[in-house]
Amino acid sequence: MSDTDEEQDGQKLKALFATLVADGDWLFMKGEYKKAVGSYTGALALKPDDKICCVGRSKCYLKLGQSENALKDAEASLKKDKLFFEGLYQKAEALYYMGNFEFALVFYHRGHQLRPQIHGFRLGIQKAQEAVETSAGDPSYVKLNTEGDLSFFQKVEERAQPIAVIHLMKNIKQRTQKAPKKERTTKQMLGEFYTDKKYLENLLKDKDLVKGQTKEGEQLQDVIKGCLTYLDSCTEFWTEETPSSVRHQERKLRRDECVVPRQRGLSEPAQFLLKSLDDIDAELSSGNAEGSLKKAEDVMKIVRGWSEKDVPNQKELLGCLHSCIGNALIVLGDMDRALDHYQKDLELAKQCKLPDAMSRALHNIGWVYVELGQFTQAIKFWEKKIPLAHGGLEKTWLFHEIGKCYLKLNRHKEARDYGARSVAAADEIDDEKWQMNANVLVAQSELNLGHFESCVSHFERALSHAKQQDDDSAINVIQKALDEAKQQLPQ
User: Most CB atoms closer than 10 Å: which of 133, 231, 251, 303?
Assistant: First the structure.
């Protein structure tokens, strides 16, 4: 074989690898995790040591509940580069979902030391620490997975969409020393799945049945017990009201500045407040949300006890402290209390006629509603923030997020209009990343409206911006979306 032929074969393999990775990224975005695993596996067959591909497949395995496979891929991504931060994060996540909270904590800390600016590591430290404290005592963990013939239970899992990912959240520890839950509480927590639980318990009493095996060779007794453990974990999760996964909370950790007037010769109260605000922020930044919450609540009690002479801007400071408390509660997963404090921040900002504080509160309230899935409410508050937004970057982001909410509500015309406003704002500041994001939003909206030519045009613009940033992952995903959109064009 000539050098030219070898070079051509090499180029073909390289192109095939890129195509398979792009397919995997696109399928992952669409939630088709099993198909994505197939694409990543094909790519790894061509390039076994590709760390990005290993991380991609690891993410899919986590979504499928196959934590051990996720861990293997995460470790493979670290073979040649022990400091690969995406691999470290993925390894920590896999260990966390396997119930190995202490080891997960080690790798979250390791990644945080390398990339302190990535909130995922800080959040990981927080949730792993909470899990270690919660699980102190009995060292036995439930190892939940999706392997084996669970077809008879598939119907239950399909109906259990809101809780179908609970087995990915904590692999909650089975407390054998704890007294059994009251049946009434269990029934209340499980709702319609309580009947399924009783059915499985009756199956377990059939001695002949449980001696059987699945086609993969797994004991039916183990499969049934695994399903019961899954339901018990759900009950445990709801009853204890443990914080939900904090991966979707990363955007909420922006520290809002709370300004104390910088006068010459700061008074003692002012000096105390400045230091306290720094301490509150430091606690939250280090992952100690409970410490941040306690400090903020203690300072609030002190501020309320002072006179207006001591603190002329008392209401402004109280609003700031409400915001700090809300930030800590968000990390702790207490959305309702966080929302209450953000609302109080907004009320005080209105009383004091402070536009920046109002903008801060509206921002936070909108995010809580997004996390709660109440997109109409999020839009309501974020649209009030528009006149208060400063600078092109904030406007670009705000228009984009409002547009995404409308997209979630299937109000595609409004989503497109806000996407177009985001594109215009991003063009003004010449921000490649937001130009890409905004054009993708418009393209998605136009696709749903059936405006295929416009959709293709905006995907092409987004692709151009992705190439300008050398963002290979974005390039692959947008290219895939563009190719699918072009298939809708009239021939």
Answer: 231
Cα distance between residue 124 and residue 130, in whole Å: 10
For residues 192 and 277, state if they share a domain: no
Instruction: Tell me how long the chain is.
Output: 491
Domain of 435? Answer: 389-491
Task: Judge whether 470 lies within some domain.
Answer: yes
What tokens were used for 466? 């992705």
Claim to verify: residue 230 and residue 251 sit in the same structural domain: no
Query: Do 129 and 166 lie in a common domain?
Result: no
Contact call for residues 405 and 378 (beta carbons, < 8 A)? yes
SS3 242: coil
CA–CA distance, 329 with 368 (Å, rounded to integer): 11
- Report how many domains make up the chain: 4
Alpha-carbon span 197 to 230, nearest angstrom: 10
Q: What are phi and psi of 219, to 5 degrees?
A: -65, 130
164 Cβ contact list (under 8 Å, min separation 6)? 157
In three state form, how does the secondary structure of 388-432 look?
A: HCCHHHHHHHHHHHHHHHHHHCCCHHHHHHHHHHHHHHHHHHCCH
Tens digit of each residue's pLDDT, the chain (491 residues): 565 666 776 777 788 888 888 888 888 877 888 888 998 999 899 888 899 899 999 999 988 888 899 999 999 999 888 888 889 999 999 988 888 887 888 788 888 877 776 777 888 888 888 777 665 443 333 333 333 333 333 333 333 323 222 222 233 233 333 334 345 556 555 554 566 667 677 777 777 766 776 555 666 677 677 667 656 655 554 444 333 333 333 333 333 344 344 343 445 666 777 788 888 888 887 778 899 899 999 999 988 888 777 777 888 889 989 999 998 998 888 899 999 999 999 999 999 888 888 999 999 999 899 988 999 999 999 999 999 987 788 899 999 999 999 999 999 999 999 999 999 998 888 888 899 999 999 999 999 999 999 999 999 999 999 898 888 878 888 998 899 889 888 87
Helices (H) then strands (E): counts for the chain: 23, 0
CA distance 370 to 406: 11
